[in-house]
Specification:
The chain is α+β, with helices and mostly antiparallel strands. The protein has twelve helices and 40 strands.
Length: 818
């Protein structure tokens, strides 16, 4: 009987050891014939050319099965789970979530590979030939429409003055002394260099720090110069885009997205934080760098319900400079976070984006850290320093669009001219063919999705894997603790045709595939990783496990909570808008009843916030909390006192809700300047100095409130019951419960205190009888309040009734003690 051998290899493409007891499972029997009863075979462990774990085995098929389609996958034991199915990529069928690989049996021996991640498959990577002890270098790029691909280099000695780190469209800037590296076309549109055919690639160290681009002869025969989409470092550190013209300026002014990529070793880190030159002199191996990552007794939280999240924009640090802040400024700011007591910091996007004076939501290079902010090594130092203080780091990532401006050197038109063949603009979804649209409106085939750019081509496995692999690289190489995924509605719901706004359901379905693949892979690498979605769709599947038909996120941003509690922006009257309406100062009733539902809903996997980057002056008719609290009146004298009291009220409700609390940088000192995407650098505030000046009372309030929430089990539970509200009196009450503890929260946004007592009556079953001890009062003198309250007394509850003194715009917390 004629036999055909197929070798199967599962590539982890991760530096950490994730998989054991790895087995191949496939739709054939022991004789190599198709079978509905799948066969399992053990896979032998080894290292592949990337020096990461790989697992292989061969199967002998009956040649009579030639032409048959077989399916296969891989089982393994991973952290917290045995017999896990570790193929996370779904089949190319919009209606199926099945994760299997398929192939048609050829007439000759073949190879089948699956890459768990592609961050070390593509790009400029260390590569080991079999039996070679030293690393060479391999370049790999996905360009299925290209006629030819080669790697070209720019001069590295930028200190000499003449070289710039930029290659013009006519090739000016290429170093003629370094031979171009030809890439060879392989199946699937992948182009790779060959160490055997190009012996000059045998020593990786010879290429370390070299500047390079891909010269792609596109489908139309034109030579184009493209950055490496899998680049780990870009040379540009500014915002200048020469637009393809000759450039004689310095790389310090050059936008990183359009500059040359730089070859780096992701397995090494600078020992010296300030070693930021193009050639690093203090590199050490990553294992050594991370050896002292944690401090005994201060490990960052592992449960999302325990988080107190501080939203931090690195670019807004560095007061009083009007330049963009850097990771060096973030390191300086860490002591402030430590003193404040937060245990998680959410970094707004710091993957390479266009320019430097922006928020970061224009990402195009998803494996590269913003060079102008300090780059990959400085971020690693920041993460390690956070972990040493028991602070988790969550990264804000953008997978719903690519950079809109300065993108001609990355995804846009990568291997085909979009003006001629937009349907082959392979990183972007293009619906149909150009002939479906008028000649003057070829852009009609792209998709809008509510973000600031066209939708990516989620139907392409390589596109989806690039996004998922970017997330895995953040976990593997940077030890990031979690992700906040930007505007997931744009991915799974809002895709519509640019031509006429028609919904494109297949794009939504493939977007859903991306979300499932992303969360599967992340949880496989780190089951404790936090996955947070900015999702405003109300789709309950977002926080349902993938194996139960969901998207697998741990929590979603809860915008309705903000709109009810604060009320900035132009929103309908169906929102309570408590702070905005209180800010008018008229003393009218407030819709506490509207707010009750939002408060109760915080128990369902919600991120609750009274301030974030969107609603802090960026969205129309919004402002910072302390400004909204007094309707933009000057923050002096009694007005500031009112503003701080009301600010304490909304912060307290957000922190003491059943959600996972988050707030924007500066709230803790009463930051008042509008925080806008286009001029944030002109509106920086002295967050450190204000801690001991006008912001000292709010800072102390935040410290004590955070300490209360992080030490009280009931405050970190999901148990909440809104037991009372009164619109005229502006009072609301709710309980927080855990198996061993009960808390009662009384809150008033009234402008006068109930200093003679306030009788609250509710169902006795919802407010148990007994003694309730006052343990927190937001009106304490140390917070700048009037010290109106119950002075730590134990109040008695009988028949569901309690009589408590409640301060003006105050939050009071009681714990049941008897």
């Amino acid at each position: 009987m004629t036999r055909i051998a197929v070798k199967f290899t599962f590539h982890s493409a991760m530096k950490r050891r994730l998989f054991s007891n790895v087995r191949l499972s496939g739709s054939w029997d022991t004789a190599g014939r198709f079978s509905d009863q799948w066969t399992q075979l053990p896979m032998a462990a080894s290292n592949d050319g990337t020096a990461c774990d790989a697992f292989s085995t061969s199967v002998s098929f009956d040649a009579a099965q030639t032409g048959s389609t077989f399916q296969w996958g891989v089982l393994a034991d991973i952290q917290g789970s045995a017999d896990a199915w570790v193929v996370t990529t779904e089949v190319p069928d919009e209606l199926s979530s099945q994760c299997v690989r398929r192939f048609v049996l050829a007439a000759e021996d073949t190879q089948q590979d699956y890459w768990f991640a592609t961050g070390r498959r593509f790009g400029a990577q260390k590569y080991y030939l079999p039996d070679s002890p030293s690393a060479g270098i391999r370049f790999a790029v996905w360009a299925p429409h290209a006629r030819n691909v080669e790697v070209i280099f720019a001069p590295c000695d930028l200190a000499a003055g003449a070289p710039t780190g930029y290659i013009a469209d006519d090739g000016t800037g290429v170093d003629p002394s370094i031979a171009a590296v030809p890439l060879i076309a392989h199946a699937g549109g992948i182009w790779e260099s060959d160490l055997v055919r190009t012996p000059a690639l045998a020593n990786f160290d010879d290429y370390l720090n070299r500047l390079y681009m891909y010269r792609i002869t596109n489908e139309q025969g034109a030579a184009t110069y493209k950055a490496d989409i899998f680049s780990r470092s870009q040379v540009g550190r500014g915002s200048v885009n020469p637009g393809g013209a000759h450039y004689a300026g310095t790389y310090l002014d050059l936008d990183g997205i359009v500059s040359c990529s730089a070859i780096v070793d992701p397995d090494q880190v600078t020992k010296d934080f300030n070693d930021t030159g193009l050639e690093k002199s203090t590199l050490i191996f990553a294992d050594e760098f991370w050896a002292n990552e944690f401090t005994a007794g201060l490990k960052p939280p592992q449960n999302i319900q325990d988080l107190i999240i501080y939203e931090l924009h690195v670019g807004s640090l560095g007061f009083p400079s009007t330049s963009a802040g850097t990771f060096a400024d973030a390191m300086t700011f860490l002591d402030q976070l430590w003193a404040l007591g937060v245990n998680a910091v959410e970094l707004m996007p710091v993957l390479e984006f266009d320019g430097d004076l922006q928020w970061g939501y224009g990402t195009s290079l998803f494996f590269c850290l913003q060079t102008s902010a300090g780059g990959a090594n400085q971020l690693k130092h920041f993460v390690r320093a956070c972990h040493q203080r028991g602070i988790a780091v969550i990264m804000d990532v953008v997978y719903n669009h690519f950079a809109v401006s300065n993108n001609e050197r990355s995804e846009w038109g990568y291997d085909a001219d979009p003006a001629v063949a937009p349907q082959h603009n392979l990183w972007y979804w293009y619906q149909g063919q150009p002939t479906d649209y008028a000649a003057a409106n070829l852009d009609g085939g792209y998709l809008n999705n509510g973000s600031s750019g066209y939708a990516p081509r989620y139907s392409e496995e390589n596109v989806r894997q690039m996004f998922a692999s970017s997330a895995l690289a953040l976990l593997d190489d940077f030890h990031i603790d979690g992700l906040r995924v930007d505007l997931t509605d744009a991915i799974h719901r809002n895709n519509s045709l640019n031509a006429d706004g028609t919904s494109v359901g297949s794009a939504n379905l493939y977007g859903i595939k991306l979300l499932r693949e992303l969360t599967r892979a992340v949880k496989m690498v780190n089951p404790s990783a936090f996955l947070i979605a900015e999702d405003h769709s109300g789709w309950t599947a977002m926080t349902r496990p993938v194996d139960q038909g969901g998207m697998g996120f741990d929590a979603v941003w809860y915008a309705d909570f903000y709109h009810h509690l604060i009320g900035g922006g132009n929103y309908s009257g169906s929102y309570a808008k408590l702070l905005k309406n209180a800010g008018y100062g008229a003393g009218d009733p407030l819709n506490m009843d509207y707010f009750c539902g939002a408060l109760s809903a915080t128990q369902y996997n919600k991120i609750t916030y009274h301030e974030n980057h969107d609603e802090s002056g960026n969205d129309q008719n919004t402002a910072r909390t302390i400004v909204t609290a007094v309707n933009h009146a000057p923050l002096i004298g009694a007005t500031r006192k009112y503003a701080e009291g009301r600010s304490r009220f909304v912060a307290g409700l957000s922190m003491l809700s059943a959600g996972i609390p988050m707030f924007l940088m500066g709230e803790e000192i009463g930051a008042a300047k509008c925080y806008r995407y286009n001029d944030f650098y002109l509106n920086k505030e002295d967050l450190i100095g204000e801690r001991t000046r006008d912001g000292r009372f709010l800072f102390r309030f935040y410290q004590d409130l955070i300490r209360l929430v992080t030490t009280m089990p009931a405050a970190r539970s999901s148990g909440i019951d809104v037991i009372y509200r009164h619109n005229d009196n502006r009072v609301i009450a709710f309980t927080r419960t855990s198996p061993a503890q009960q808390l009662l929260v009384l809150a008033s946004l009234n402008d006068a205190p109930f200093d003679r007592g306030y009788v609250l009556a509710t169902d006795p079953r919802r407010l148990p009888a007994g003694g309730w001890l006052e343990i927190f009062n937001s009106d304490a003198a140390v917070y700048g309040g009037d010290d109106v309250g119950n002075r730590g007394a134990t109040l008695q509850v009988n028949g569901g009734r309690i009589n408590a003194v409640i301060p003006a715009h105050g939050i009071m917390v009681f714990v049941k003690v008897s």
